[in-house]
Amino acid sequence: MMIVNRITQSRVWTSIFRHNLDDKPRNKGLAVTSNVFLHIHPVTTRASAMKVRFTFCMGGLTFLMFIVEVVTGILLMFYYRPVPEYAYTDMKLIEHTVHYGMFLRNMHRWAAHAMVILVMLHMLRVFLTGSYKPPREFNWVVGVLLLTLTLLLSFTGYLLPWDQIAFWAITVGSKMAAATPFLGSEGPFHELLKINEYNDMQYLLLGDNRVWGNALLRFYVLHCVLLPVMCTVFIAIHFWRIRKDGGISRPL
Ligand code: HEM
Fold first, then answer.
1. Which of 120, 152, 154, 242 should be mutated for ligand 1, with most atoms under 8 A from CB?
2. Residues of the chain with pLDDT > 70: what percent?
3. Taking burial as the number of CB atoms within 10 A of a residue's CB, which of 11, 165, 219, 231 is the most buried?
């Protein structure tokens, strides 16, 4: 019991779970109004939180870019096959034979660039306004995960056009994995863990020791399924935390 109390009263725990719903009669009402699913809008909003110049809506715009990526990405999936024989041709066919294909592909590409730039500007805004400080420290951690996921989405998407720049960029990127200390077959201390070119980080990433069919398929699954699903889950947690932390922070 002592250990449970120590955990539930710790700073990390209370930064994630704010209040115990059964501890006061007033909390019976709070159970409904503070539940994001039962009461999607907050009961009150501060006028200062509505000021566009405080956030410049960077987080909201990052989210908008994510939605654009999901919609255009699903449409691109109808025409693209992740195998070396077809990937490049499919991409060219999307551009030149599919109605609005060039527009679709460019929208996906430009919104991806915009998402990376906006997420960094959003992070800068949060930092400059000190919004990472308690009680929002947990949401900063969720944000760091979202930044990592955004960069990984960008990295995995880069291989899919299967052109020269994609091929060589991922060759260089995955060589870095091979140079990882301990876990990369060309990295320092790899002999200690009996790591070779068939069980190292580069092999895990590519499913091979060079960029070819297995790598293309792995990157496609990561890009179209795993990373977007993870991003959706963490964005939901991010938005839920904003409600639980009392809305966005106030201008000083
Ligand atoms: C996919 C990426 C992300 C999305 C879609 C997103 C979305 C949002 C939105 C819509 C807000 C509300 C206020 C605003 O629009 O600025 C917000 C607030 C916040 N975000 Fe993000 N965010 C992302 C990444 C990040 C990153 C990388 C960090 C920091 C490492 C971060 C930390 C925070 C914090 C601490 C708040 C609360 C700010 C406050 O109360 O003023 N977020 N986010």
1. 242
2. 98
3. 219
